[in-house]
Design a protein that fits this description.
The structure is a single chain. With about 140 residues, the protein is an alpha+beta fold. It has a single domain (about 5-140), classed as Roll (Nuclear Transport Factor 2, Chain: A), CATH 3.10.450. The protein contains 4 helices and 6 strands, in the order H-H-H-E-E-H-E-E-E-E. A 6-stranded mixed beta sheet has the order 2-1-6-5-4-3. The longest helix is centred in the N-terminal third of the chain and has 21 residues, at about 5-25. The termini are far apart.
Length: about 140
């Protein structure tokens, strides 16, 4: 028997697939498209999946603050210029959704572009339903 929580997540995931495909022209859900943009270091593409209705809260080791889309693009561009993303992987069981809010956790492996030790962080993306499209409203990291 499936739990109500799992059922809610599966319904939200289906909604993410439909809304993401309609909004972005991509066949995958926004978290997969978002992950591809993050791995590529494409700040513009990442911010394309962020809220249009306000600011995005960013709480990373390397950058903290509340940013509008243009500001966030600059902050992420600097972050991606300094760090080489080795992997960003979302796990299905690390996703949950409620009526208008969803959370997805991913493992982010990165290192400084000038070398150094690879670092692993867990990123939590909070998404909010805006119209019929899920948008990122917060990105937090934890060790």
């Amino acid at each position: 028997m499936k739990s109500p929580r799992r059922g809610a997540w599966l319904a939200a995931l289906l909604w993410l697939r439909v809304a993401g495909a309609a909004e972005s022209g991509h066949s995958g859900p926004p978290v997969e498209v978002l992950a591809a943009a993050w791995r590529a270091g494409d700040a513009r593409a990442v911010t394309g999946h962020c809220t249009r209705a306000g600011r995005v809260q960013l709480e990373l080791r390397q950058a903290q603050g509340s940013y509008g889309a243009a500001q966030l693009e600059v902050v992420l561009a600097r972050l991606f210029a300094a760090l080489e993303t080795r992997a960003l992987t979302f796990e299905d069981e690390q996703r949950e959704a409620h009526e208008e809010t969803a959370f997805a956790r991913a493992e982010w492996r990165h290192r400084a572009r000038d070398g150094g030790v690879e670092t692993r962080e867990t990123l939590t993306f909070a998404l909010h339903l805006e119209g019929n499209v899920w948008r990122v409203v917060e990105i937090r990291s934890s060790p």
